[in-house]
What does this fold into?
Amino acid sequence: MPRERDPGLIPPSKNSAFQTNEQNDPKGAWATNQDLLVNIKGEGKVKMPTLTSDPTLQLSNDEILRYSRHLIMPEVAMEGQLKLKQAKVLCIGAGGLGTPLALYLAAAGVGTLGMVDFDVVDFTNLQRQVIHDTDDVGRPKLESARDTIRDINPNVEVIPYETHLNSENALEIFKDYDIVADGTDNFPTRYLVNDACVLLGKPNVYGSIFRFEGQASVFYAKEGPCYRCLYPEPPPPGLVPSCAEGGVLGVLPGIVGSIQALETIKLILGKGKPLIGRLLLFDALNLKFRELKLRKNPECPVCGTHPTVTKLIDYEQFCGIRGEEHVPETHVPEITAKEVKQMMDEKKPFVLVDVREPHEYQICRIDGAKLIPLGDVPKRMHELNSADDIVVHCRSGVRSARAVEFLMKSGFKKIHNLKGGVLAWARDVDPSMPSY
Amino acid sequence: MAVKVVIPTPLRQFAGKKDSVDIDAKTVGEALAGLTSQFGDLRKHLFNEEGKLRSFVNVYVNDEDIRFLQKDQTPVNDSDVISIVPSIAGGSLIRCICS
It folds into this structure.
């Protein structure tokens, strides 16, 4: 359930124009305007959802000045700006993608911005999550985001949900919003957001990033395919996050999240050709945009002709995440950073193996460690002697656990995983070592 | 006849770090077989134990999903581009396709 609203946050107004409007309109906020049929390239007509307008709603003189560059464009004009003011958009995540989403939607005058996140700002966020400042490190992301949004546009009502989005609370949170913008970073939440949007008939403005590559689309099952039409199932269990393969160029979420903000605004205005039925691929390294056709899958388990998913399920289980973290096939013996330091001080002979990548080794290293990146362990294990005591480490202990597991299967018995990796070493043994 | 296969970022580490590979093939199935025989590590990331394309990996010929064409029998010629498009979770914590 969403937590009780912090009394320090802007309370949602009880009489927002949108709610009044919703009460008067039995069809709900989305009405199909036949004038806004938009031709999608060779795909026939797509009905664009558009907000019904409240004739009593007006802009103040201050707002007219603020939005003047919108108002002088016929595609937005007063009618469009009032639609934006009435619109309620829910951003899932206040991180890399949520940053441009929230900043641009707020600046553009979207009246109500819900934000779901339970994280706290840390230093590693600042390279891309420009909604948060250095001074915000340690604060809840939603508090920090709310302050920035308030500075940009005090007319925007921010509704924070400092909670972990799950099957119990998603429908309740989503139901009051017109559009959901998905800026999450994990598969269980992706499928949860998709299914909840399909069940409630709401558009899901999707964005996703990996290193130098981004994807964006609008999944709106009433008019086109959903995320499950594209990917029926997530990657199977056992595929765990790896810091060696992670990382993201700081600008990339700025670009993909801005595309999501743009699509959200187009949906609200009912203008242009939305990304419904199209998957946009962005390759930042080669600066290439490509577009793929997405088709509605008649056998889709959630939006197909005979859906098998008719209510929200356990998405952690669906994605095989639950219980995965600590179930290695063999028991991996562990050793703490302090114990390793003691062995060094006592000059006990042992071999320290670092299974990180060379570019990580350049950031920081434990003196005397032998670098064998995880991927090279099978072909380089002849460099190790199974008669020696061996300690294996990586950044946080995940990759080294895999290496230990592999080496134990290959006959190594006097082998330990350094619990917590170099992060634990920096914390417990050598505070002068940088963390990353 | 060489068709261009575009390799997505998460899979480049299993394809000699290349962003695209030219393969002689007449169908999508032949192209993927050629690709995985050249880069053996790619196989388990593209296909399951039964040799079927994994459900979190989609393959396109130009801008069309092969699931809606003739699947692995979809014919290709040398002006076509085959794209492998895996699902990516995105954001700060990456759940990637790794071994």
In short: Chain B has one domain: 2-86. Residues 2-86 of chain B form a domain with the Ubiquitin-like (UB roll) fold (CATH 3.10.20.30). Residues 91-99 of chain B have pLDDT under 50 and may be disordered.
